[in-house]
TrEMBL record, chain A:
The complex is composed of two ATP-binding proteins (HrtA), two transmembrane proteins (HrtB) and a solute-binding protein. The keyword Transmembrane applies. GO terms for cellular component: plasma membrane. InterPro entries: ABC-4/HrtB_transporter (IPR051125), ABC3_permease_C (IPR003838). Part of the ABC transporter complex hrt involved in hemin import. Responsible for the translocation of the substrate across the membrane. It is a multi-pass membrane protein. It comes from the Bacteria. Its main location: membrane. Belongs to the ABC-4 integral membrane protein family. HrtB subfamily. It is found in: Cell membrane. This is Putative hemin transport system permease protein HrtB. The lineage of its organism: Bacteria, Bacillati, Bacillota, Bacilli, Lactobacillales. It holds the Pfam family FtsX.
Automatic annotation (TrEMBL), chain B:
The keyword Cell membrane applies. SUPFAM superfamilies: P-loop containing nucleoside triphosphate hydrolases. The complex is composed of two ATP-binding proteins (HrtA), two transmembrane proteins (HrtB) and a solute-binding protein. Keywords: ATP-binding, Cell membrane, Membrane, Nucleotide-binding, Transport. Residues 4-234 form the ABC transporter domain. It is a peripheral membrane protein. Its main location: membrane. It comes from the Bacteria. Pfam families: ABC_tran (PF00005). This is Putative hemin import ATP-binding protein HrtA. Part of the ABC transporter complex hrt involved in hemin import. Responsible for energy coupling to the transport system. GO terms for cellular component: plasma membrane.
Amino acid sequence: MFLAYKEIMHNKARYLLVVVTFVLISYLVLFLTGLATGLARNNRTAIDALPGNYVLMSKYANKNLLSSVITKDQYDKVSSSDTALLGQMTVVAENPQTDKKLNSNIFGIRLTGALKPPVTAGRMPTKNSEVLADDSVTYYGLHRGDRITLNGSSQKYRIVGYTRDHRFATVPVFYTTLSTFRQIRFGSAQVPNVSAVVSKKKLTDLPKNTQQLTKAGLIENIPGYTAQTSTFGLMIGAMIGITLLIIGIFMYILTIQKVAMYGVMRAQGIRTSAIVTALFWQILILALVGVGIGNGLMIATSFVLPKTMPFYGDPMMMLMITGALVVMSLVGGLFSLRRILHIDPLEAIGGE
Amino acid sequence: MGLVDLKQVTKVYGSGHTAVTALHPTDFSLQAGEFATVIGPSGSGKTTLLTIIGSLQQPSSGQVLINGQDTTNFSEHQRTDLRFNTFGFILQGSNLIPFLTVADQLALVDRFNHHKQHKMSRDSLFTMLGITDLTNQYPSALSGGERQRVAIARALYNDPPIILADEPTASLDTSRALQVTELLATIAHKMDRGVVMITHDTRLLGSVDTVYEMRDGVLTKQDAAGVKKIRAAAI
């Protein structure tokens, strides 16, 4: 560490370049990761909150909750104390007084049943004309107490409370009664259909024309979800790989510039292991400083990002990315290792 | 038994008909308190001799004894430790580490020295070499002569019994070169070290105990008359 530190402090400009590279890469990767996490969460938090791991949907729906309809005959066959009915529909919510419109979902549930979300402000709805909203609706100008229409309905629905982190397919969810769901989806509260049955236990003996999915399977089949997460995954992975190359090549160039000096050190009886240790200490110091600054910038940025931006800084995720960048830069040091192992102390003498 | 004993040591580079003999069978010995110098034109094999003495490379044949111990078949690791503990190298270019101050050049030795009791006092070394004021300077700020004196301090710091100097005066003017040579003589005579200096500068032979001449890989020890002849040839 002595050699590593002294050299960095003596050649500040040169090593500042390496640190700046680390800062920029880590900032970019952390930003991408935050966006990827945020977007993924916006797709799935309402599904993650479902109190059972198994979901029964219609077979024709191609695993897409948006298209699934389960009839009374079908859900009666599997109903038990472990199951709950869910009606889902994509709607536009509008406050006619302010003309604010918002793409959203309604989840029709039994208001006192297992699917009841936690209330973070206000109260649970008690009748068909009341809804509980994900609190992100406030970013778009809808608030508790507003009377909204759903898909241009003549009926108005009052927002009586908020829940948090309950979004589906990137938009907020309004929780309401199954009757309201049926009214909007099928035109009549008397049509007993729902969208899916959520079950704590794996269902056996499935009704005709139905299909059972796990929660994870349902999430993967949210339209666009898998394409989006794998695109982000590829970009983040590629950036981490590029880190290895950039830092590896950078340190390699710095190493070949120092071959003569290393030759002198070898001639003076300093072991190769000491030189290798100095190299990796150097990379570690530069990486920790650079990635540390990158993290700091990212945290600072996250405070000024607009709330509507789907950014979510998951500390666990950020830590993993930071760790991966540091490990990759150390792996990049292996390029130089080869050169250092081949240093001949005779190089110091110049030979005749 | 001397500090260094070379017995019928040869060095051949390459093989087959591209083989070049850099060193013909050579005997050489060095005692404590002796200041030996090897002179000769460039390409004569004197650096090869120095690198074999200094365990920087192994001979093609023959035996190398350092302090009576046969080091001919030492592993790279053993030779590294031998170099660290037994030899002080003074090289012709800058053998200082550019990003360390004069004080840190020696502090680096401390970090790898696990038997600190043999170490010389840094301050007395610096006083002896007249570089006390330079402790916080980087090598780039030093003159050639100052740099060479720091290199000598670095070589002596670990208290090695043998000092090997390869053209230590190459970049110095005559008066500075004489000062460095005097210093090496003092180290040999007053501190009882074995010193081998390689040079092609025959003006510097005044304080030397033993003079060898190297020509085309053949080492010849010179008597007083020989030394006189070499010095005369130079003038």
